[in-house]
């Protein structure tokens, strides 16, 4: 089974349990911390994936280190250790965040521009795309991309909205090519 499918199943189950218990926000906060730990602490990943360290020792470590986390998160981590699937933890966190955002009507997007956008420009883009995507809010992450000659390109999930000059020129070129 692919990593994405496994991660989605765990995230879906955790979201459903947290929703039933009214603890979706608590789990979100725990996942923010957990995500940062797994992104920055390469020694932890190496330890959890090391074949010579026993699963019982790894699970004991998780119980000790993540003592303040909810039972559901700790048990999920222990199951992942037991099944040798700790590499999917960041994907589980990402999918859980997506589920939370969907439930709240929030979309995350990346905007590529030739320079850093001002707060007003970012706010205007967020409002425009919130309406366009029928969401309560859009959270934009600005990426400065020198290959963008002018305008902006916005990526929301798998969709790309290309308002760059080079994108417009390419569309014009295709249209002219069709006319010939």
Automatic annotation (TrEMBL):
Membrane topology: Peripheral membrane protein
Chief location: membrane
Gene3D superfamilies to which the protein is assigned, alphabetical: N-terminal domain of the delta subunit of the F1F0-ATP synthase
Keywords: ATP synthesis, Cell membrane, CF(1), Hydrogen ion transport, Ion transport, Membrane, Transport
Origin: domain of life: Bacteria
Subcellular localization: Cell membrane; Membrane
Entry keyword Protein transport: no
InterPro entries according to UniProt: ATP_synth_OSCP/delta_N_sf (IPR026015), ATPase_OSCP/d_CS (IPR020781), ATPase_OSCP/dsu (IPR000711)
Ranges that cross the membrane: none
Family stated for the protein in its record: Belongs to the ATPase delta chain family.
Record function comment: F(1)F(0) ATP synthase produces ATP from ADP in the presence of a proton or sodium gradient. F-type ATPases consist of two structural domains, F(1) containing the extramembraneous catalytic core and F(0) containing the membrane proton channel, linked together by a central stalk and a peripheral stalk. During catalysis, ATP synthesis in the catalytic domain of F(1) is coupled via a rotary mechanism of the central stalk subunits to proton translocation. This protein is part of the stalk that links CF(0) to CF(1). It either transmits conformational changes from CF(0) to CF(1) or is implicated in proton conduction.
Protein name per UniProt: ATP synthase subunit delta
Species name: Virgibacillus siamensis
Gene, per the UniProt record: atpH
């Amino acid at each position: 089974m692919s990593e994405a499918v496994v991660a989605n199943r765990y995230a879906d189950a955790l979201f459903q349990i947290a929703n039933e218990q009214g603890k979706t926000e608590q789990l979100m906060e725990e996942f923010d911390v957990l995500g940062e730990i797994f992104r920055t602490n390469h020694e932890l990943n190496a330890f959890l994936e090391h074949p010579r360290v026993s699963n019982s020792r790894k699970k004991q470590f998780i119980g000790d280190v993540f003592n303040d986390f909810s039972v559901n998160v700790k048990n999920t981590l222990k199951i992942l250790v037991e099944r040798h699937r700790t590499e999917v933890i960041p994907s589980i966190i990402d999918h859980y965040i997506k589920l939370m955002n969907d439930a709240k009507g929030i979309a995350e997007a990346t905007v590529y521009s030739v320079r850093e956008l001002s707060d007003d420009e970012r706010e205007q883009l967020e409002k425009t795309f919130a309406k366009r995507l029928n969401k309560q809010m859009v959270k934009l992450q600005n990426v400065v991309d020198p290959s963008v000659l002018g305008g902006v390109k916005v990526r929301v999930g798998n969709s790309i909205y290309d308002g760059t000059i080079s994108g417009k020129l390419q569309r014009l070129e295709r249209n002219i090519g069709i006319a010939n």
